[in-house]
Amino acid sequence: MTKVFIDGKAGTTGLRIYERLAERKDIEIIQLSDELRKDPAAKKGAFAEADIAFLCLPDAAAIEAAQIAGADTAIIDTSTAHRTADGWTYGFPELKGQAAKIAASKRIANPGCHASGFIALVAPLVEEGLVSPEAALTCFSVTGYSGGGKKMIADYEAEGRASWEKGRKNAEGTDPLDSPKQYGLTQSHKHLPEMEKICGLHTAPVFCPIVADFYSGMTVTVPLFAKDLKGSRKAVEELYKSYYSGKLVHYEPCPDGGVFGNALAGRDDMVVTVAGNEERILLIACFDNLGKGASGAALQNMNILLGLPQETGLIL
Description:
Elements: E1 2-7, H1 12-21, E2 27-30, H2 40-49, E3 52-55, H3 59-68, E4 74-77, E5 89-90, H4 98-103, E6 107-109, H5 113-127, E7 138-144, H6 149-157, E8 181-182, H7 192-199, E9 206-212, E10 218-225, H8 233-243, E11 249-251, E12 270-276, E13 280-287, H9 291-305
Parallel strand pairs: 1-2, 1-3, 3-4, 4-6, 5-6, 7-9, 11-12
Antiparallel strand pairs: 7-10, 8-9, 10-13, 12-13
Helix pairs in contact: 1-9, 5-7
């Protein structure tokens, strides 16, 4: 039986991983009491006992935890801390050759949610020469509020809701959280470094993330002018069909009625599709920010380490 330690089990991602592993008969979860969960000696012992450990922590704490863990324990870090760090393997198995690298690694950095959609759409195009590494791209992403963690969830689900902003409402007397909110306005979002590096781009994209009033789900869109694409819209569709032949990322034709942000809520797979026309093309990825964007991806990486089918225990 595989022994697993979740450092940061109380957070949104950690709790979701814990709940799902608790249902598996092949996993034994190592647990620390509330009094010991931040004790360095206790954590070091838990890491030593574990075959695999998940880090579901803020960046600084994840760096510290990774230093405490021994080299024999495989680490899957769900924070931003190690996604572009030397010695860490990026945990997006659908990229060419990446699953084998994950299987051979003891240090795996789980992708960011927004980044997962962008990379799924752009990395194959750069790899196959349909988009130049020199391209200046734009990306916008709509996500459910659960991606903001416990505080944001509490804000959105609070009774009366306007309490998040000292009780104030807007001039129409409605709660600002009723409408989508664009954030990351300084263009320094924490997912940008991995989006640039993993796709092999020379410039980070202009990135416009938006949080809206639904719990989970995400739609990431990358617009392209035909002049920025070395091929046709059809060529992109055919590439996605061949590149993503597995169960966890797959191509589907774009629905005529549009793409809902929460269409894949509660699932662990991702759908990529292409819309627009021959002059202005839209690359779209739809998935759950808590699934393929977080806990589902972490469990997929664990399955690879264990030599199991990648979809074991996942919801498709």
